[in-house]
Amino acid sequence: MNRDFIERVRETVDIVEYIGRYVDLKKSGKSYRGLCPFHQEKTPSFYVDPDKGVYHCFGCGASGNIFRFVMDIEGLSFREAVIKLAREYGIEVPSREVEGKTSPVYAALRFASDYYHEILMSPHGRDAYRYLMKRKIGPRAISSFKIGYAPSDGKSFITKAMTKNFDRGTLIQAGLARKTESGTIIDYFRGRLIFPIFTPGGNVIAFGGRALSDEVQPKYLNSPDSEIFKKGNILFGLFQAKSSIRMKGIAIVVEGYFDVIKMHQAGFQNTVAPMGTALTENQVLVLRRYTKNVLLLYDGDEAGRKAVERSIPIALRAGLNVKISLLPEGEDPDSIIDKFGPEGIRSYMDRQVDFLEYQFREAEKFRESPSEFSEAIKGILENIFMIPDGITRDAYLNRLSELSRIPVDSLRNQGLKFSGETGINKKSKRREVKLTADFIVLVNILRHKELVEIMSDLFNEEDFDDPLTRELFRGVKQGLGYEEIMASGSEVLRSSITEALLRSGNLHENLALLEEKIRLWKYRKDYRDAKRLFEDARKMGDRERMDFYLKKMYEIKKKLRGKGGLF
């Protein structure tokens, strides 16, 4: 992409304001601090530095610039992130920038989504369309969720895809085809309704397939996990729901595809579903970007209750406020809406209780058995001590004391035993890297285009000793700018660049010092070259050349006297 266009977008976007939409940031010195949106933590370790335009989490190592943040939050490519920000902030996007290359896997998934939807709307999808009408899924929902149908013959999609120049390897990698034991390539989805799985930014990354008959097993078939799709990271319906979640300030979590779609049709567009029954840690972190309030609207059967119990501590640990409303056993939002309409499901939502009241009701069943009641209370305490905010935690302790008639001090003492066991503050197993002086200086040089051009002309990757500096300079030689490296580099590189910027203060503003460092590097390179050539001459017994390069090495050392030496 055009470097000037990227720079204009970066300068226009207020990184604190934008990240503040997803993270509750508070001023901390010259930076801003909040709970990391990429891992669960109790004590804020996520910092945003507006002067340097970077963010960094000292807990999990997540780092980058505004483009990287948008890429990770919205599931976009670098190009898509730049264009999204440009449009959002009123910057005209040059037409040539919109056309960029798309990953063949993403292109195949997008093509598949269009193909399956077209089949559903064609005579070939008549039976599937009738099934949707029978389930009371209307045309608007079919379009909004881009529901499709995969023909049952096992070859229609592959045949069509290959006419569009998609190769078999790409289709298999995208989870759209699979190889049989005999070596034949067949469609992965056959004879099923197709539900595209979107990232929050709107990219199709997978599909869910539903059999038209309950006799066909498995009833639901998801795309296999891949580099771009991990079902534990994705919430079905979030792309369609995210604006409503932000506006209403709460996310409704249900169990299935049809539940989500029926809820949206009924006017509850702030509804999503996990790609499994219970919420995962990554899914609640995604939800936390849009709201702090979650309503678990689950079936009241044993599976639904277990899913609620598993979801509560995960959501609390992420700092979410958890409400629960269980439907009658054997019912779900889909069936309730069919029988009683939107008001029917609303009546159950109005009966929601917070996690403490829900779990205490369950504990009350054991009131006559002190040992069982004690164990149930301990379970509630363990969840209370998952809550990051101390004031909220104390409020729940006082409520539990009133309900259980157990002194609050006793509850607190017992709860403190759990606080060191919850894993809230676990650090990631990220690779620890020692930052060299060369790396720190090179990071600061990257902020100046003219110095980058000089560096690219004068040096090669081999002129630097440590692997991290070499990796960074490799990007320079490839013509990547600072913003692109910060957005697209490896996790270790991005984290190290951010740490270097935070540690080096205003070094990037001292142009004279950076220019002097380049001169020193050039002397070091010349010295090493002269030494290597001296050794070559020595091996050949060429005294004249030895003297020449020995003199050159001496002259370089003389120039460097008092300037920090060669290495």
Structural features, described:
The protein is an alpha+beta fold. It folds into five domains: 3-98, Zinc finger, CHC2-typedomain (DNA Primase, Chain A), CATH 3.90.580; 104-229, DNA primase, catalytic core, N-terminal domain (DNA primase DNAg catalytic core, N-terminal domain), CATH 3.90.980.10; 233-351, 3-Layer(aba) Sandwich (Dna Topoisomerase Vi A Subunit, Chain: A, domain 2); 361-419, no CATH class; 437-560. It is built from 26 helices and 17 strands. The strands form four sheets. A six-stranded mixed beta sheet has the order 12-14-13-15-16-17, sandwiched between helices. Helix 3 (66-74) packs parallel to helix 23 (482-488) and helix 16 (355-364) runs antiparallel to helix 17. The protein is globular. The protein starts with a helix and ends in a 7-residue tail after the last helix. 40% of the residues are buried. Mean pLDDT is 89; it is low at 421-430.
